[in-house]
Amino acid sequence: MRKREKESERRGRLLVNPKIQLAYWKLILVTMLLTTLIIFAGLYQFLDQVIIKNPHVTYEDTRIILSLFYQTSLFLVIAFPSITIALLIWGLIISNQIAGPLYRLEKELDRILNSKDFGRRFEVRKDDPLKNLSDQINQLLDKIDSNEKGSA
After folding, report:
1. Exposure pattern of 27-52 as b/e (b: 16+ CB <10 Å)?
2. Do residues 95 and 2 lie in contact, with contact meaning Cβ atoms separated by under 8 Å?
3. Rounded to whole angstroms, how far apart are CA atoms 91 and 119?
4. Cα–Cα distance between 101 and 16 in angstroms, integer?
5. Distance (Å, rounded) from C-alpha 70 to C-alpha 59?
6. Residue pLDDT tens, the chain, 152 long
7. Contact call for residues 121 and 141 (beta carbons, < 8 A)
8. Using an 8 Å Cβ cutoff, are 17 and 99 in contact?
């Protein structure tokens, strides 16, 4: 009974399967960092082309362009952590919707294999993203169970 309580508590947590969920987080972070680098590289290229390689740019134009560049950079530096935190929270919630049912399927399969009770079935919510997989596993268990009963 105590083991079942711990598992249900685990299912209620956001980090159900840290290995899968942290890999998902890494993907989000790498994507965001690459995007930021590309934006800053584009801004640098713009400045290089407009200010340095253009002899017709006046001092006043350069001041205006650099001021805009500074404001844009400041916005990105302030916005990036906020966006990162929001995306990580969103990623955690989305990954939990996948990792949670996977964890549950894994534990239920362990129970079935250890007890050799092929009459057990998976019960998942109708809106669960892994409903089709659990239905197929249940069909497989039906066939195994009927073969077991037929050979007995």
Report:
1. ebeeeeeeebeeeeeeeeeebeeeee
2. no
3. 36
4. 9
5. 16
6. 455 545 555 556 667 777 877 887 788 888 888 888 888 888 888 888 888 888 888 889 888 988 988 888 888 888 888 888 888 888 888 877 777 778 888 888 888 888 877 777 877 777 777 788 888 888 888 888 788 777 66
7. yes
8. yes
Amino acid type, 3: K
Domain ranges of the chain: 12-100
Tokens 């950079």 identify what position?
73
Give the global pTM. 0.54
The 10 Å CB-count burial string (b at 16+, else e) for 89-101 is: eebbeebbebbbb
